[in-house]
Every structure is written in C-alpha cells, then in structure tokens.
Design a protein that fits this description.
The chain is an all-alpha fold. The protein has helices at residues 3-6, 17-46, 56-65, 67-101, 103-116, 121-132, 136-160, 164-172, 177-212, 220-229, 233-261. The chain has 11 helices and no strands. The longest helix is centred in the last third of the chain and has 36 residues, at 177-212. It is globular and about 70 Å long.
Length: 268
Amino acid sequence: MSAATLQSPAVRPGTSPWLTALFRAVRGLAILLAVLAAVEGLVIVLNVKPWYVPRPTLVLNAILATPEPYVQGFLRTLTETLMGFTSGAVFGVGIAIVFFRARVLRELIFPVFVVSQTIPVIAFGALVVLWFGNTLIAKAAISFYLTFFPVTVNALLGLESVDPRQEALMRSFGASRFQLLTRLQLPAALPQIFVALRLASALSLVGAIVGEWFGDTVGLGVLLLQGMYNENVVAIWAAIAMCALLGTGFYAVVAAAERALVFWGAEQ
C-alpha cells in the first residue's frame, strides 16, 4: 500500500488547500466541543464555584442574552487587528528588503528597532494615545508596533537564506535586481515570512486589545475591563471566549493562506 493511500483525503496531494482548511476547522470545532463538554461535566461534578471557573453553558448564555455588545466588540477589535496586522506586515517585509539590499542602513536602523521592542507595550500605548488621541488609528498603531518586528526579522532571514548559486544562475541569464527579488528571493523567503505572519496574527490582536484599555467604548478589551470592574467573572470569561474565537479564526485564515501560497513549505 502506497503512502498516498494512507493519507487522509483532506490532506492528499492535489486537494484544494481551502477544503483542507475547512476539514481542519470542522475537526478543531469537534475537539473544542468535546473539551467544553468535559469542562462542563468536571465543573458540575467537582462543584467548582462560578467565580473561579463558570460552566461553559453559563458563558454561552451570557453572550446570547446580550449579543450586541459582543458582536460590536468583535467587529471593532477585528478592524483594529486587521489594520495593525496589514500595515505591520507590509512595513516589515518592505523594510526587510531595504535592509537586505542596503547593509549600511541595516546596521544603522536595525538596532533602533531592537531597542524599540524593549519598551513595554503599556508604556508605548500610552504615548500613542497621547499622540493620536483615543481613535481607531491609535489602537491600530499599537497593533502595528507588535506586528512589524517579527515580520522584519523573519523576512530578512528568509531573504538571506537564498542559495547564491541560484542567484548566480539567474544573473547569468540576464535577470535584473527586481527580477531576482520577485522571482527568486521573495518566493524563497515566503516560508519564513509566513512563520512571522502566524505569530503576528496573535500579537496584532494583543496590541488591539491593549490599546482599548487606554479608553474606548466598544471592543473586546473594553468588555474585559467592564467585567473586571463589575467583578462579573462570567462576563470576563465571555469576553475571553470572544477573544479566543477571533484569534483562532484569524490564525486559521493566515495558515490557510500559507498552505495555498507556500504549498512547498507550509506546515502540514
């Protein structure tokens, strides 16, 4: 029996990466439901007090009882996350190309980037809110701050990992610097770039939530603060559940894009 016969139909070579992603999403949902059912049973059997760990059904009922703030918070935080993630990814890849082509700029500017990452996000967030006010841009800027650095580092590593013999071969056929970049160097760096993008999908969400803590009326970070101030443990867990849903979904989309675009190097 061949190895291809032993593979699951969802991951067989030639299968659409989006169908594979759907299969994995359904499988993950089934596992999640099983875990939640187990937690529900354990909480009941062990008589765990709701102010420690509430039953998942209580959390779900809290969301369904007043869905509007959770839906609005989800969409607002998603918008901030997407803005920060997209701008951070584009900037990170762009500046990595600049550093790759101009080593002098890399030696001058890259240490500044490293130092910037030692600043606690809370302190940086306070400065951003003072600069831009309590706006959507301010939240996206904090999300950008946590996103661009890992993308820059991994994109630079990917660009530097290109085989010099391949570059020499393309040059021998008259390839320009732009053709080298678009047809060899960037495609070769894509696996490393997507490693950073998967990490950045979580970091950008953290940045958006932290930004909302500096003052806002809508967002998952706002719901977390409201639950904490009201000492409402169920509301806190409901906000955490929505954050987990957003983060997991965003990560899954990035991973699916990786499997579609980097089919030779994406994680299986």
